Amino acid sequence: MKRTGNKRIISVIMCVVIVFGYISGVKTIYGQASFWTGTVSSDVTSYLNVRTGPGTNNAILKDKSGKDVFLTAGQTVTILSTHNSTDGVAIKWHKVTFPFGDSTLTGYVRSDYIIVKVEPIEDELPGDFESSISYFPDSYKPYLRALHLVHPNWVFKPLKTNLAWNTVVSEETKLGRSLTSSSILSYRSTAPGAYDWSTDKYFSLDGGGWYQAADDVVKHYLDPRNFLDERSIFQFEALCYDSSTQTRSGVETMLGGTFMGGKYISNGSSQITYAQAFIDAAVASGASPYHLASRVIQEVGRQGSDSVSGLVPGYEGIYNFFNIGATSGTNPIINGLKFAKTGGSLSTASKTKYLIPWDSKYKSIVGGSKYIAANYINIGQNTLYLQKFDVDNSDGQLWHQYMTNISAANSEAGIMYTTYKELGKLGLPITFSIPVYNNMPAEKCPLPEARGNPNNLLKTLSVTNYSITPTFEIESENSTYYLILEGGIKSITVNAAAVSSLATVSGNKGTVSLSQGINNLKINVKAQNGDIKTYNLVAVLNDDDFQPGDETTEPPTTQPTTTTPSTGEPTTKPSSTEPSTTKPTASSGYKTSYKLHSNKTITGVQPLTSVSKFIADLGLYGGASAYVTNASGKKVTSGNMAAGYMLNLTVNGVQSKYTVIIRGDTNGDGEVTAIDLLMVRKVILKSFSLSGCYLTAADVNADGKVSAVDLLMIRKHILKAYKIIQ
Fold first, then answer.
1. 109-158 pLDDT tens trace
2. Are residues 713 and 700 in contact, defined by beta-carbon separation less than 8 angstroms?
3. How is the beta sheet containing 510-513 ordered, strand by strand?
4. Overall pTM > 0.90
5. Is residue 583's pLDDT more than 60?
6. How many domains does the chain fold into?
7. Which domain, by its residues, includes 13?
8. Which whole number is the average pLDDT over 277-283?
9. What residue spans of 547-589 are helical by DSSP H?
10. Side-chain half-sphere CA neighbours of 31 within 13 A
């Protein structure tokens, strides 16, 4: 027993030593002791430049063809060494190697955009740590264990949102709520209001260059499990002021390389550094000065913007460091400066509390900090994540967000992490509040693959000197068009152009040779992202030897029966429209606008009526039941109704069967198309015959014969100049 126990202890110790050895390697990256794997952070929403040296003063690396080399979010690199920047900014750079095309390249990238990969730990750790993370779902725990071994003083607390994952996704994907400035088109939404498929235009929703984020991008940033690494977890850090860990020197480090680094401003009585102004703001508001400084950098950029210049006409001497009130519109900055000058709808007491008007840089920083703390941090939205995704339990939830930028929380987390790292403060007891949702996906939601333009629609489709039916419409769900031609035509000219200039069109375009009968032409549109849409153009060249069914497309479920040449009289004459003798009773029945005839046919069914709608429109009650079978007797539960289908109706225990008649649908495919037009023409010419329900369908005007009148009615129906009465 004793030996077994020793083995178990040794096993645990070895496990911990191995893991710590791995982590120790990660920690010694800056000592350049080992090579480690890293991935490009997901807050790189476009491209991360690779340079020839450690700093932005070095040229961008070129590939063998002379093109710029860049990385995108999620790409894997091998970290060879780490270096101080040569451009004077206090951010270290990694020397990395990575595959690029058919080559392996080596260059330099900013370290704050690279996440060092720490393998998740599936096995439970010894000690009390497991009990501290017991509320977290199992899918969180491997990442928290790995972080615990690196930073044993960190505290991970679950934020119990009590919200269903799908509910939150539905709210956060609403138009205008989550935006991206990414030039990667697959990161942008193509939903209505976000993108116009007919013009290939993404709509800017907040000033210039901000677009609705794609649903999968929102899911990625919403899923906390994607950010349980040493860097990104700082979006879950509590944002309250802690004077023992958050210092002026730390703020100075954070501001290095920005327009605020080492600069002085007036506090009304003396000149102080920006760093001291943020400490004053932290004391006044109770918010972390690191958070406040990173928020300004996120809002106005490292070099500042018009929001903090004090030079905007009409708003001279007015500043808005946090872009508070810079709501979406044609000019958000003006909206923000208007708030900084007037306070908007705030009460007089609130304006005084927040030092409005912000007619000095100091008042904007301190007053803006008090506003953020009072309206977000001090009411429960006390992490970067919660200021983007309002899922805490402090209010109505889901709408009170500080930022629309989908990656803002993760970007600011990088600034916070870099500050702690440069100050050597990562070993402090930092608390992270990490949201948990109900019914989350089993796996983390990945960031979509970086792909090109998705538009694979045609802008125009036509045939020179001829008209196709139905009329071509760019965003129509229809992708099959018809063209009826007289004999003797050898070729046609098909004109097809894509909506997007980035798409390619191939297939039967230009001059196309025809053969007698049905010619099935295909035009393929390939989007830049590789998605292909195929348009079908059925060109019917009249030929008396052609028999319907000869076409090479997949035949309809029901084929018409061919017999000896018909006299043109329907085999089954249309009955009157009197209701069936099977009438509704008080106990069981139906109530419908469809007409059930005594000859066991049913009419009134429109082309393209779905089977489910057909059943619903029967208006069954009192235990009556119905189902549909096709001409082969097979039960049909999906798709559209078609001529030749059978209604199987049971009322008061008695079953009756009714054959479906759809006027104009002579080939039983549920539609009225150029194929039906050709079939009726051949019936009239006595070169082909129909029987049963298909012959009845050909008698469009129900006058007991198939004639040129029926042919004309079908043609007008196809051209949308007339609608066949069913």
1. 988 788 877 788 898 887 889 999 999 999 999 999 989 887 888 889 99
2. yes
3. 458-463, 491-498, 510-513
4. no
5. no
6. 6
7. 1-27
8. 97
9. none
10. 7
